Amino acid sequence: xxxxxxxxxxxxxxKEAARSTYDRLSRWYDLLASGSEDRCIQVGLQRLxxxxxxIVLEIGFGTGRSLIALAHAVGPPGKVHGxxxxxxxxEIAQARVERAGLSERVQLRCGDGAELVFGPDSxxxxxxxxxLELFDTPEIPTVLCECMRVLRSGGRIGVVAMxxxxxxxxxxxxxxxxxxxxxTYVDCRPIFVREALKKAGFQILILTELSxxxxxxxxVVARKP
Length: 225
Known about the structure:
26% strand; globular; 9 strands; two-stranded antiparallel sheet; alpha/beta
């Protein structure tokens, strides 16, 4: 994936390695990520403007922090489905959903965002936060193609992701250097979020540019034609 002549970094690890990493991190993930990611995720959820009765899919639900907000937003008529590669993340998220009394409204499963098990036209909305940039570069179009397939005509996708800029600042350059040197520990990298969605055939509706630790974050809402 590129914008102009600028290429984004690759993610060299296998799916098995990713699953193992997030199984190990699951116990500590909220402590590590909640303070930094939550603000951006909340903006993403607000921009989606979910409606009562909508059917939503979250790809990469992690420990389930967004699932609760999604379920409350769509209300009892709606449903939330989630898919995540980590069995341990699923266990923690499922427990969170049960504590919130939302088990009848939320259904979770393990799986790969690049191979969605759902049929065509299954969802009104797809949401993913800090997940798309974890996929290797050749897989990002595949993930978005799968999102297009499972969305109904006119359905919306909301993506919150670290964003690559054509003229990166020092923080972004240092982060990408760390990703190249230590890909096991710095496992994601900035990507061209808007460009990827456009190439997949989505129509951009809303773009909000944020930052996290001095790194650019794009919150994008787009529509399936």
